[in-house]
TrEMBL record:
GO molecular function: nicotinate-nucleotide diphosphorylase (carboxylating) activity
Organism for this UniProt entry: Ficus carica
Biological or metabolic pathway of the protein: Cofactor biosynthesis; NAD(+) biosynthesis; nicotinate D-ribonucleotide from quinolinate: step 1/1
Protein name: nicotinate-nucleotide diphosphorylase (carboxylating)
Signal peptide stretch: none
EC number(s) on file: 2.4.2.19
Length: 455
């Protein structure tokens, strides 16, 4: 149970040359509210003012980085003259928010940090996110690092997923049913064959919920799993494990599904290299592309910023493929930029036009995309003769990328045409999650799994 007190700090009227402000200063007593152990930190004077007004008669449940009473007094004392001039007429005090009537220990668990998560920052450098010690990940578990992105905040994505699940209230079922401070051991169980991915990310989730949880793995990202295999365990406070369970599994199941399909496609496409596209789940760009790397694929551009990709709409707006490439060459020279440049071609005539321009002019072009040059045939077969002819025309002068009508059934035939890369949006936009569970009673889980043919 949290306690709420209000006491006077001092009572002072401020003299000012402005009669209106003088009257306002005389009209109100200055009082401060001290909330034991639940006062959030003040980042600037505006949050100080708002927190000061909110604290009058309203019980906050924030515990993050609590400010001591003496620190609060110092902050209020420093800001009080200005606050006297700025405060509005006092509103009737709001009713105190009552916490659920659990034991004091469960109330403490309810107010864990994960329930009050900060908003996702769009400006943190991702490089800082993947220092193993800071992220709470063992170096062994992160065998394949995520791609580097200048603004993506992976830790913020984890916090957002946890906050979405907690809804500001926490796991009410666990609070009601689990004995306080109960500790358990839960095992990760594969319920179908595939490639596991997201082990390092799951470890980040558990660490975010409760740094005291211990996670151990018998496999690493990119290893194969089979139905019924136990490949990791987490032990510690039962409440923390169950709160983190679904978010960790959601990441792992999606990433493992992407990695499983990527591995199958990459093996079939050999000697061509398999790429994903930007057709990723909103907010999960880095997660999806990380899974592709774990599955043995390569990353296409991360976004609009790290590579020039002249697509059909750019060509149409620029007035033709030659005009579009010319404009890119001029832009990169003016901005003194060095990056890969790819142009999409849809016909053999466009391929000829690109090659003609490149033979007469120094260009920044590095890759030619051969889009929809794989023609579907009945019964799932494809005609790749047009693609072969385009590759022959280019003759190694540029990298080539086949796109369109790429499936697990067609990718081997496409890879045999001599293209450098094969890109497939299906790797991420049509992913089927790999079935993975986390169980405390694994024997019963396996018994049920065998009955339902999932173990």
């Amino acid at each position: 149970m949290s306690f709420f007190f209000s006491f006077p700090i001092f009572k002072k009227r401020i003299k000012t040359k402005n009669p209106t402000k003088e009257r306002a200063a005389r009209a109100y007593d200055v009082r401060a509210s001290a909330i034991f152990g639940v006062v959030a930190p003040f980042k600037d004077k505006h949050s100080l003012f708002s927190s000061f007004h909110r604290s009058r008669g309203v019980l906050s449940t924030e515990r993050n980085d609590a400010v001591s009473g003496s620190t609060l007094f110092g902050l209020i004392h420093f800001q009080i003259p200005l606050m006297c001039l700025l405060q509005r007429p006092q509103q009737p005090p709001a009713a105190a928010v009552q916490l659920p009537q659990f034991s004091s220990e469960l109330s403490r668990l309810r107010r864990r940090n994960l329930h009050h998560l900060p908003p996702v920052s769009a400006h943190r450098q991702v490089g800082r996110m993947f220092v193993a010690e800071k992220a709470g990940i063992s170096i062994k578990s992160m065998v394949i690092k995520p791609p580097s992105h200048p603004t993506y905040d992976l830790q913020g994505v984890i916090k957002l997923a946890l906050a979405e699940d907690a809804g500001g209230e926490g796991d009410v079922t666990s609070l009601a049913t689990i004995p306080q401070e109960a500790e358990v051991e839960a095992h990760f169980l594969a319920k179908e064959d595939g490639v596991v991915a997201g082990i390092a990310l799951a470890e980040m989730v558990f660490h975010e919920v409760d740094p005291t949880l211990k996670v151990e793995w018998s496999l690493k990202d990119g290893d194969s799993v089979h139905k019924g295999l136990k490949f990791g365990k987490v032990y510690g406070t039962a409440y923390s494990i169950i709160v983190a369970e679904r978010v960790a599994l959601n990441f792992m199941q999606r990433m493992s599904g992407i990695a499983t399909l990527t591995k199958a496609m990459a093996d079939a496409a050999n000697p061509a290299l398999i790429l994903e596209t930007r057709k990723t789940a909103p907010g999960l760009r880095l997660v999806d592309k990380w899974a592709v790397l774990i599955g043995g694929g390569r990353n296409h551009r991360l976004g609009l910023f790290d590579m020039v990709l002249i697509k059909d709409n750019h060509i149409s707006a620029a007035g033709g493929v030659t005009n579009a490439i010319k404009a890119v060459d001029k832009y990169l020279e003016q901005k003194n930029l060095k990056m890969e440049v790819e142009v999409e071609t849809r016909t053999l005539e466009e391929v000829h036009e690109v090659l003609n321009y490149a033979s007469q002019t120094k260009t920044s072009l590095t890759r030619i995309m051969l889009d929809n040059m794989v023609v579907p045939l009945p019964y799932g077969d494809v005609d790749v003769s047009m693609l072969k002819e385009a590759v022959k025309l280019i003759n190694g002068r540029f990298e080539t990328e086949a796109s369109g009508n790429v499936t697990l059934e067609t990718v081997h035939k496409i890879g045999g045409t001599g293209v450098t890369y094969i890109s497939s949006g299906a790797l991420t936009h049509s992913v089927k999650a790999l079935d993975i569970s986390l169980k405390i009673d694994t024997e019963l889980a396996l018994q049920v799994g065998r009955r339902t043919k999932r173990a």
